[in-house]
């Protein structure tokens, strides 16, 4: 019904962990200086839907590779803050379902993929390119979490998630085309991390880093 389409929800997220990265490039260089720090608050609220298929590594990882399984997430409005040294930084909240959050806490590979998805969602919504070498500072959240208001309809398959998915697919296709044109041997940055190698990448790196 029309009424349902207009009904809105206010998220009241619980803190999870923080991803710290930085801006590599943007459409608005005066607003977003290169190397400006970005903090992404990965948080959770049960009002955000969970995936239709429950997480089971043997079932879900092959689906992720085929782009057929993802964790619905809601990105907050942009917030400005300062880092420890008083330098300006930008903060975004990425809110997922509590159950989805628990899956990511118990599976390191899924957590790495979630971080990639959060970075991609922020990049798409704010037209930024962010550094993939991120760190996880010792904090539950950077600043207050936003009580983001969204229309009920945006939570359903046809809403924001669908748009993000299409954008993601288009972006990945676009990147693949570009790379073909350049005959470059570099990896396509839009692809998911190699699930076979994902464990080796972070082995020497502490999961929690001081900022």
From TrEMBL:
<dbReference type="InterPro" id="IPR050734">
    <property type="entry name" value="PIH1/Kintoun_subfamily"/>
</dbReference>
<dbReference type="GO" id="GO:0005737">
    <property type="term" value="C:cytoplasm"/>
</dbReference>
<dbReference type="GO" id="GO:0097255">
    <property type="term" value="C:R2TP complex"/>
</dbReference>
<feature type="domain" description="PIH1 N-terminal">
    <location>
        <begin position="8"/>
        <end position="154"/>
    </location>
</feature>
<protein>
    <recommendedName>
        <fullName>PIH1 N-terminal domain-containing protein</fullName>
    </recommendedName>
</protein>
<feature type="region of interest" description="Disordered">
    <location>
        <begin position="180"/>
        <end position="211"/>
    </location>
</feature>
<dbReference type="GO" id="GO:1990904">
    <property type="term" value="C:ribonucleoprotein complex"/>
</dbReference>
<dbReference type="Pfam" id="PF08190">
    <property type="entry name" value="PIH1"/>
</dbReference>
<comment type="similarity">
    <text>Belongs to the PIH1 family.</text>
</comment>
<dbReference type="GO" id="GO:0006364">
    <property type="term" value="P:rRNA processing"/>
</dbReference>
<dbReference type="InterPro" id="IPR012981">
    <property type="entry name" value="PIH1_N"/>
</dbReference>
<dbReference type="GO" id="GO:0000492">
    <property type="term" value="P:box C/D snoRNP assembly"/>
</dbReference>
């Amino acid at each position: 019904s029309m009424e349902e389409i207009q009904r809105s929800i206010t998220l009241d997220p619980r803190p999870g962990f923080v991803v710290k990265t930085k801006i590599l490039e943007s459409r608005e260089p005066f607003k977003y200086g290169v190397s400006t720090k970005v903090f992404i608050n990965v948080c959770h609220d049960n009002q955000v839907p969970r995936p239709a298929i429950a997480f089971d590594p043997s079932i879900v990882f092959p689906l992720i590779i085929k782009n057929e399984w993802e964790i619905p997430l809601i990105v907050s409005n942009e917030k400005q803050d300062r880092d420890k040294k008083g330098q300006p930084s930008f903060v975004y909240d990425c809110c997922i379902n509590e159950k989805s959050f628990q899956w990511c806490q118990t599976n390191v590979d899924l957590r790495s993929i979630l971080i990639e998805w959060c970075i991609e969602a922020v990049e798409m919504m704010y037209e930024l390119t962010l550094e993939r070498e991120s760190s996880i500072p010792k904090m539950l959240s950077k600043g207050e979490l936003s009580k983001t208001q969204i229309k009920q309809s945006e939570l359903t398959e046809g809403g924001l998630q669908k748009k993000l998915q299409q954008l993601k697919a288009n972006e990945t296709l676009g990147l693949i085309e570009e790379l073909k044109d350049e005959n470059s041997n570099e990896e396509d940055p839009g692809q998911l991390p190699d699930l076979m190698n994902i464990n080796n990448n972070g082995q020497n790196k502490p999961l929690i880093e001081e900022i």
